[in-house]
Amino acid sequence: MCPYSFALLYPSRYMNINYLLEKFCQESHYFSGRSPETIKRYRANITFFIQQQNIVKIDAVNRKQIMSFFAFGRSEREWKSATYRTYYMSLKVFFRWCVKEKYLKENPILGLELPKLDAAIPKGLSLEKATALLDWAYHMPSESRLQRIRNQALFATFIYAGLRKSELLNLKLGDIDLIGDTIFVSKGKGRKDRLVPICMNLKEILSRYLFERNKAKKNTIYFFTSTKQDRAFTKAGLKHLTKKIRQHANISFTIHGLRHTFATLMIEGGCDIYSLSKMMGHSNIKTTTIYLSASVEHLRGQIAKHPLDVHTTW
Q1: Fold that domain 3-100 belongs to in CATH
Q2: Consecutive 10-residue runs of the chain (314 residues): their mean pLDDT?
Q3: Strands (DSSP E) along 47-202, which ranges?
Q4: Of 18, 41, 189, 313, which sits with the fewest C-beta atoms within 10 Å of its C-beta?
Q5: pTM reported for the whole predicted model
């Protein structure tokens, strides 16, 4: 039976926008293979639109409401261009699904003008602050030796390997190869797998952590564990730990900023853009080139190549 037939038989249920949102999220997860993080973003963004515009039925959605919603976001919520585009993409995909399933005749968001993205330079930590952060992660007051070494291993993996938060928390024991010196990132952003090499410093830190983890008889399949329970270290636990280190070390940083730190330090160390893009899992190398402008040391090194930059006696 087609969706229009359902709508005629059960109009209040099958045209209810919240019901359709739930159906869309389930299909996106089970049939389209969207990640849990993507589904969570879809649900949150679309629910906010529904509530802000007080929509009950899908056929009540119109262009005027969409324009009003984005005007509210820009004026009242002070959305940046990236936030605006995130809401736009969530709604676009949802309405496209509604058109495909014949709940809507056309996608009401198509043709809406998008603001240009801010050309912001990614903010990372300097080499000195990154080193200090790792030192604090280890020496900060902890409940056990395992906790202290795990904390350092967590932040060392962010800084030395450039993993995203979800990628790190989803690492399994088998993903870390200390013989082949690689980290296998399974289903990263865009559902893509990749291998990230492990440098010597990170290898030593991860080896110490594995030794303590084995001593504590942790059996969970996840690499980073809770110290109190035999289960994976959680997003909430990482949030709490990050806040604690910020306070003790007096260093302002974000977890995603540590990924920027990795990229900037790699550029300053002489890593080429192609290799860095592969390590970071960027689908487009243009995304990686922004770190060239973020690295002052790299730019200084490049300007020194100016052919007229020679000592001249005038």
Answers
A1: DNA polymerase; domain 1 (1.10.150)
A2: 46 76 93 86 96 94 94 94 94 96 93 80 86 94 94 96 94 95 84 90 97 96 95 95 94 93 89 89 80 65 64 56
A3: 176-177, 182-185, 194-197
A4: 313
A5: 0.71
